[in-house]
Amino acid sequence: MENTIMKQATKKRLLGNTFKYLLLGILAFIVIFPFALGIWTSFLPSMDIAKGTLWGGGQLTLHNYVTAFTQTKILRYLLNSLVIATLVTLAHLFFCSLGAYAFVFLDFKYRDFFFYVVLGTMMLPFEAEVIPNFATVKMLGLLNHYSVMVIPFLTSAFGIFMLRQTFKQIPRDLKEAADVDGLSHWQFYWKVVMPYSKISLCTLAAYSFLGAWNQYLWPMLTTFSDHLRPVQDGLRQLQSEETFNDWGMVQASAAIVVVPTLIVLYIGQHYFKSGLNEGSVK
Amino acid sequence: MIESLPSTKQQPKGPEANQEITAKVKSFELKKNDKYYAWLFLGPSILLLTVFVFFPMLRTLYLSLFLTDTFGNPTVFVGLKNYAILLKSTSYIASLKATGTYVISVSIFTIIFGLLLAALANQKLRGIGFFRNIFTATMGVSVSVSAVFWLFMFNPSIGILNKVVTAFGFHPIAWLTTPGWAMTAVIATTVWMHLGFTFLLFFGALQAVPKSLYDAASVSGASSRYQFWHITLPMISPTMFFVAVITLISGFKSFGLIDLMTGGGPTNATNLLVYRVYKDAFMNGNYAQASTEAIFLTIIIAIITFVQFKLLAKRVNY
Amino acid sequence: MKKLNQLFKRYWQLFSAAAVVLIIGLGVFGYSRSQVHAAAGRTRVVFWHEMKGPGQKKLVTFINEFNKSQSKYEVVPQFQGGYNDVIQKIMNTHGTDASPAIFQSMDISTSQMYHSGFTVPMQKFIDKENYDVSKIASVARGVATRNNTLLAMPFNTSQTTLYYNAGLLKKYNITPPPVNPTYSDITRVSKQLYDRSNHKVKGISVESYSWLFEQFLSNANEEFANKNDGHTGISTKVNFTGPTAIKSMTWVQDRVKYGDFMNFGSHKNEMAVFLSNKLGIYMQTSADMSVLAKGLGKNLGVTYYPRPDGVKANGISVGGASLWISNDKSEAVQKGAWEFTKFLINPKNQARWEKATGYLAINKDSANEPILKQSYEKLPMLKVPSDQLKSAKANYTNSGIFVDGVVAARSLIQNAMQQIYAGKDVYKSLKAAEDSYNKVLESNNLANGWTK
Amino acid sequence: MGIELKGITKTYDHSDKPVLSEVNAEVQDGELFVIVGPSGCGKSTLLRMVAGIIPISDGILKINGQVMNNVPPKDRNLSMVFQSYALYPFLSVADNVAFGLKARKMAAAEITQRVDDALKMVNLTQYRDRKPRELSGGQRQRVALARAIASDSKICLMDEPLSNLDAQLRVRMRSEIRELQRKLGLTLIYVTHDQTEAMTMADHVMVLHDQHVQQIDSPLGIYNHPANHFVAQFFGTPQINLLTATTSGQTATTKLIVDEFLQVELDAPIATGTYTVGIRPNQLGLKPVNGNEGNATVINVEALGDQTIIEAVMDNDVEIRIVKDGQVHIDLDQRVAVTALGPAFVFDENEALIAEQGGVKDDRIVAVN
Question: 10 Å Cβ neighbour count for C10?
């Protein structure tokens, strides 16, 4: 009696674990497969891919990578994206934190009004405003220029909102202590508020970087030459230029593009999570 | 710091009283100065948001009331006629429906799969860290990279999916060129793309559920399934809601994947709202109609965002 | 000075932050700018093109040769994606730094480019230099001519062409289609192939691509839009439901119903399947020729675009694109663009162009170039598209469509074609497209002040 | 019957050192059994093994005579109250109480009945529709109790249920829990780190320390006969004084000498050597002396009103605590002579109790009764 209960329980757990591993395995396969296949084919000779022989065919080759690096502007695309994303990230950190500071530590007329204004912009999708924005940047003479992909995105309502939440957690005592010490707003901002909110700033940085890195529609509309195209649109370009279906080269380019983001993400993962909690769920 | 202030030096009183008074004076001055600092600090953001968000919105609204010429200039005022045309247009209605199908399917499947992955990864099993890493992997994949990977799989002649299909004795499927399948393909790719991020969110939410709740439940007689439905789900409902909202919003804004995978086709089956705006404006040159479509899009997204704010303020479960 | 010092001391972080941003910004912008500048002493001529695959490769070769051949100009190619995108890009960038000096734009954009007033007519340069334009094929010129003024220079000129897999036909013992086939001729071949291969090989594919539809109309001398396809005035109505429109689409739908037809969704896929001997016939641009000839060699069969039964072939209008010179650049740049144009259309280069791509050499003298002669000798079917071109007499219906915004019409027609392939009613599908586009046309004419 | 622990051992996968080893105990039906020990001693682990929340590495657990080692928690028919209360934040008070009953698919009418009864018993009837976050700490604690009450199981486990309450409330809840346990006839295993709770509530106390059971006894049994240093120090406030003492002479003797003033007379002779003597603060006498006489110097005096705690440092630099009833007036730095009054415990070099001086302790027990 005692033994059967024990045995049944053990058996059940064993069965359950096997089932779980099976499910985990299947799901992991589904998640990783498109990746793995892409990377795998990037090492195959173009002829094999075109014929559809994905395994058991010829040998693995780095030829596609050589082609991608030498025949396409993939490195240039990467550099462009890096520059744009870095600039946008720095600008977000700077302008959003200043804005958030104003909402938390400054006392001025219509503060709430302005806050709702900023909040309101989060409801307006950029995608729906491309037509007038295009006209604006054209008027400003920014077309086909890095600045066209940076200037409209120098600040972010989400960033201001998120940092405001963070800054509000800073004890009021600190501000009062700073007042007693005679720190100006700028000093308090730079010496206390910014270091205090490091984690949130990192989170915002991670978001802004990824957001800028993944820009697609806007650069597509506003850039006209390869040496300015960011990587997303560069890949689009490669994809459409190839009537020949040189899949190996395209896959190699995709692999080249995906690796830096994966690295950034594994480093920034933690911040993403905490940022989400702060920015929204809380 | 204080020594450097000239006012302090002029005060003949004792050091303590001295400091206090200075602080008061200073703080009073600061409050007075706040206004200028506010302009300095907030000015750039407000200016940028005005130029690149508010003004364009009004301009879009304005354009939607006109007919536009070849150069995109509004020439003939037509009032709400553009709206009427759009609402009567079967293809726009079809686009709305397609977008609806897309965003709803994407959010449902993203939630289901994300939750499934997170729930499994939350188990205490040997080697679970490996699976966790795999599940977050798609987070690094951008739209264009996903599109490249999946386009290859959906390729009708050399794609892996058709190999599987034919291996089971079925006819190969024209994935991206049959309306139903194209939508399915786009949804599948989008869900896959969202999976890593959603997984991370759900995983975080699951880990945040106090273990004692499960202990209490299992002691008081709840099976693990019962615990999932009656503890886990209610506890992570805010996260679920959040995921639903962000996938909905990003679904409505979906552009890159459509552009790369289907170009809105076949028979407009995947001609989602943003893609339509783009196509009407930057291919067909019909800026008035595109503006009208943009206004509709804005209204939809604004409503969802607003609901999100409201509900988050109230919290969803407790 | 002391005050300034103090100010700086207090806000040094602000200053340094601003400085960092400024430096990065300027550095980067400067760098990007310098990348755009041409080599010292040369005039930079930005060239927007939409050539992919072999066309792009050859075009880049031409550009390099041109840049080496002289030291005054430097042509900078910038790939812009599809023909459809580029029209609006021109409309949107004209007058800015971003706009090109010379660009390639497709046949159906002629009207819009003309109306925009953004370009310098080629005729201006021709007249100035007394350039002998008669060497350029007249049918090709017809597409880019208005009031006897050559607006743009045809460059990559193509014909819709019917390709068949002669090897497959031989294998299943099927008589190839005649030179100037009717729909029924094609039906016969397609059916036989499908049946005799035990349904393993699809007979025919017609991409749901409006250009093919337009050419069905052209070949039967049917108007696409009123006012003679816009050649004699502003079109106010389009006609997608004429007898040929219905006949051609019904013909394709019948093929779908029979089963010998398959829609592969995209040009790329279609070509891939055709090359892998799983498709007997397809109709596409003559620019596929080089790839197909390389893949199938002597097994490639080529013939004219089909016509309805009992209708005399009217010939089809040329497709492809022409070169336009923008008027928002300096005289010197425009001159450079013109020099480059002349370089591209000289007999030798046009011959090499046809050999490399399958686009038709528009320079009459190209036929005498050994490179073309040799390849015609080797593979006689390569000559079919240019024969087709020569066989046609230019008239309004085979000289392109001179209507603004045909891009939108095309997407409507494409949609209708897809519906028809999916089994929807032919007339209703076309009628819906026609009605929609008539509305677009009406408001477009109104907005541009062409009608009241 | 009751609960039987035989050689219970817990070792986690990632280490080979057990967190609990060889725990043997028997909990009688209807008794309140307290497991007490400092944090990290494994007491919660032990409780969770009984509940089935964590698996038992070795040994046998029997509940009502049946081996339970691999029985899942839901089938062990226990109730449990957690330190954090483990209330479901999204459920109302009544639903929280009903949770387990619903999970066990009890009839709706009976659930209502039980919930009502349980809430009444803990005086929460009027709060039944509130959410946990709308309740005070004490009220949340009662909800957790109500949940245990509502379940029909006769065995209840409590894991430091009072540690999140303020001092006054804790005192009140102590007696309430004790009362409930008696009224319902529960077998209650109660885990705490607070020796007062153990002393005031328990029928039997298990002292856990260092992965091992130190002693199992009644509260007074433990107070009066601490098995070792640790137990002696753990029970009683202020803490017991542990002093080094040696025997006098070359043969077994009953006399242990700390110093000239402080000497202990044992009930039975003990072998020669050096020992540790434990004397509770209230069993030390203290007499102010002049000049440099005496054996200690007062360093701190805490007047609590009804008693006075005097801290002094002995001449061998050992600090001691002495408790005197009433209000004692003594100056800081005053030289005093400290002497032993009554009971004392003698521990060997292994810190185990080897002898004691009975003193007046038996009389005191009689007097209380």
Answer: 14
* CATH fold of the domain at A73-281: MetI-like fold (1.10.3720)
Distance from CA of B29 to the nearest CA of D (A): 43
The pTM of this model reads: 0.85
What band does C29 get if pLDDT is binned at 50, 70 and 90?
A: low
Domain CATH number, residue C302: 3.40.190.10
Strand blocks (E) in C257-330 = 279-285, 300-303, 319-326
Closest approach of chain B CAs to the CA of A276, in angstroms?
Answer: 8
Question: Per the domain annotation, does C273 fall within a domain?
Answer: yes
Counting residues of chain A whose pLDDT is more than 90, the rounded percentage is 20
Q: Give C52→chain A minimum CA distance, Å.
A: 5
Residues of B in contact with D90 (CB under 8 A): 234-235, 237, 317-318
The nearest alpha carbon in chain A to C292 belongs to A244
Chain A residues near residue B42 by CB distance under 8 angstroms: 98-99, 102-103, 114
pLDDT at B104 over 90: yes
Q: Is the pLDDT of residue B64 over 80?
A: yes
Query: Is A95's Cβ below 8 Å from some Cβ in B?
Result: yes
Contact C10 A187 (CB under 8 A): yes
> What pLDDT was estimated at residue A268?
66
Considering only CB atoms, B222 lies closest to which of D74, D84, D90, namely D74
Best of C28, C60, C289 to disrupt the A interface by mutation (most A CBs within 10 Å)?
C28
Tell me the ipTM for this assembly.
0.83
Give the D-side interface with B, CB within 8 Å: 48, 51-53, 72-74, 76-80, 82-84, 86, 88-91, 99-100, 103-104, 131, 133, 147, 151, 157
Report in angstroms the alpha-carbon separations of C119 from C249, C338, C417, D124.
37, 12, 34, 86
The pLDDT value recorded for residue B156 is 80
Q: Quote the DSSP letter at residue C276.
A: T
In chain B, where are the structural domains located? Answer: 2-63, 86-314
Distance (Å) from the alpha carbon of B131 to chain D's nearest alpha carbon: 20
d(CA A50, CA C105): 31
Three-class SS of residue D241? strand
Please report the DSSP string for C357-384 in residue order: H-PBP-BGGGGGSHHHHHHHHH-GGGGH
- Contact: C444, B286; criterion CB under 8 Å: yes
Residue C328: pLDDT band (50, 70, 90) is very high
CA distances from B91 to A86, B99, B123, B288, C82 (A): 41, 12, 48, 17, 23
Are C441 and C352 part of one and the same domain? no
Cα atoms found within 13 Å of the Cα of residue C77, Cβ hemisphere only: 21
D365 CA to centre of own chain: 20
CATH for B86-314? 1.10.3720.10
Pick the CATH number of D3-231 from 2.30.29.170, 3.40.50.150, 3.40.50.300, 3.30.70.330: 3.40.50.300
Calculate mean pLDDT across residues B281-305: 91
Residue B290 burial class via C-beta count within 10 angstroms: exposed 0-12, middle 13-18, buried 19 and up: buried
The pLDDT tens digits for A167-195 are 988 888 888 888 888 888 888 998 889 98
How many Å lie between the alpha carbon of C226 and the closest alpha carbon of chain A? 32
In angstroms, rounded to a whole number, what is the distance separating the alpha carbons of residues B308 and A190?
A: 33
DSSP code of B316? S
On whether the CB atoms of residues B258 and B275 are closer than 8 A, the answer is: yes
| CATH topology assigned to domain D237-368 | OB fold (Dihydrolipoamide Acetyltransferase, E2P) (2.40.50)
The minimal CB distance from C52 to the residues A86, A134, A242 is found for A242
Question: How many contacts does B have with D, using Cβ atoms within 8 A?
Answer: 76
Q: Using a CB-CB distance cutoff of 8 angstroms, which residues of chain B are in contact with residue D104? A: 220-221
